[in-house]
Every structure is written in structure tokens, then in C-alpha cells.
Amino acid sequence: MLLYAAGMLRTSPWSVLYALALLAAASLGACGTNPTRGNASTQAPAPKATWALALHGGAGTLDKDADPALLKAYEAALASALRTGTTILSQGGSALAACEAVVRELEDNELFNAGRGAAINEQGVVELDAAIMDGSTEHYGAVTGVTTVRNPVSLARTLMQQQRFRMLAGQGAEAFANDYPVLQRVPNAWFITPRRLRMLQDELASRTSRSHAASVQSTAPSRLGTVGCVALDSAGNLAAATSTGGITGKPAGRVGDAPLIGSGTLATRLVAISCTGSGEQFIRVGAARVLAQRIELLGESVHEAASHVIFEKLAKDDGGLIALSADGSIAMPYSTTGMYRAWAREQSNGSVQSGVAIFEESTP
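The structure corresponding to this sequence follows.
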């Protein structure tokens, strides 16, 4: 590590200072004792994978005592999205295409807080955020405050491909979409479901017993949720995508971590990351960027780096993330009751491992 830092000094003194600071922090951490964390990913890296994919449908929205039929519906939805992504990868498709397809499917499923069935703001409008990133080029596209584009993740990818402006908000994002008829448009009411409307009504009614500020800052489980996907293709390229409706009862114009590169979404040549939970907290710590830098500068595994972010940088119940490294290792830590998630990986010998989970079972 010190040799690596010395080499960096010739080009960037700030980089070496940051690397040494990380090294010092890691050394101090090694001298202490870390408590056992039931949802941490501590497994050794998997053998090099031909392709791999992980997805999530949000953390912090879960109840172990929920209707079993509802939990089964979530599991079926996760399994379906997983098949969509793995079909693309197993046929030689790109990680970017797989991430977009998976997130589009989750956006169209009203069980999740993205696209149809997304959270409604305090004015009764659904405002959607999304981002997508190609690790091979580190190009990205991000949109926020979208109100009529059925699949915001596809709008984000279209924005990425035009290679001029990479993030647009509100009316600007909507106007950009007007130039691309392939992007399906729907009235804002199409996104609103009876379940989400009840959640908004409950949230607004509850504000009579607490201040508006406390309401907005609340991270009650029923008010959070995101969807995301990370993928590694057979060419060795990584990609990530995240999409969300944000928080129930949020003020108009609120932006969370999902569309912010380095906070809720990131893909490099080393790792792809999608986060879910309390957006303000993931933005505060720069969650995805911290994870990637610990891998790059400290040489940590994706499991170690992801666990550090969720259990050391963030507080309990702040959320979770999915992260996929270039060798196909998958980390899916969370500090909430559970996290909707699924994963699959084809090993170099042709065998495929996969799993779907909500609570503590089936960690890759």
C-alpha cells in the first residue's frame, strides 16, 4: 500500500494523503474488536465469475409478520427480475443492458417504490429519480423530479448516451424526453396506486401530532424504498442502475441519493454499487464513493468495504446496498430488518448459483 501511495505522489499529492488517511483508519480499526454483524458479508471472494448480477427492491420497508401471500409476491417479483437480467447476461449481453432491463421491470411493478407504485410527495405528485452508470467508461446519466416518463432508468440511459449533459432535473428532464419518442410517456396519475395513496394520507394526517420538519426527517420503514441492479458481463464490464420515488410525503423537488453518482449509484472498473435507505444519510457520507475508494486504495474486498459503509459510516436502520466486484464477488449488507434482494453468478466452470431473499437467508 505504501509503495502504491509513493507512486501516486508523483501525480497527485492529495491522492496519497487520502490513501494514507484511509490506511491509518484501517490500521486503527484492525487494532480493535468488531462486533458480529448478522447481515454483514464476510465471505471470501468467489472464484472468477463469467457473469454475475445482483438486484434489490429496497431496504427498510419490511415486516416479518406481513401477510405471507404478500411476501411470496415480492419473492416472485424479485425472481422474475433476476431471470430478466440473467437471460441477457447468459446470452452475451452487456451489463448495462441487463441493469436497465431489470430496473425497468421493477419500475413497472407496483410492489416497489419506483415507477408505478412509487412514493407520492406532499402535493400529491409522483416525482421520480434514477441513475445508470457504465463502469467500463465511467459515463453516467441521471434524472430527478421526472413526472411523466414511464421508465426513468431508460431516460437516464438515453441521457448518458448523448454524451453532453449527464444530469437533468424536473422540467429539463421532461423536455429532453420530448426529443425521444421511444421513451414511453404516461400521465402522472398512472404512477399512483391505492396503496401509496393510503400511505400518503396516513403520513399527512400524522403531521397534526408532530412538526413538519420532524415528518420530513423521519425514516419510518413504510416511507422508504428504492430499486437497483448491479451487473458484470462476460466481457468483464460492470454497470449499476438505481431508481426511486423517494419518501412518502416529501416536499416537491426533494432529491435523494439514488440519482447522485458516488452517493447512491456508482460503477467503475473495480466495483458496481446501488444503495437503498435514508437518502440524506447516504449523501452525507458519500456511501458509494467511500466503498469504491476503500477497494481501490486499501485493497479491501467488496465484502469488507460494503460492511464498513453500512455498519461503520451509517447508523442502524439507515438502509443497505448491493455491490459487485470485477471478480464476481457480491456483497449485500443491510442494517434494517431486511432487504428485498436477489442474485445470480455463473462460475468459470459453467455452474450457476442464485438466490432470492428478504430477510437473513440466502446471502451469496
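The chain has eleven helices and twelve strands.
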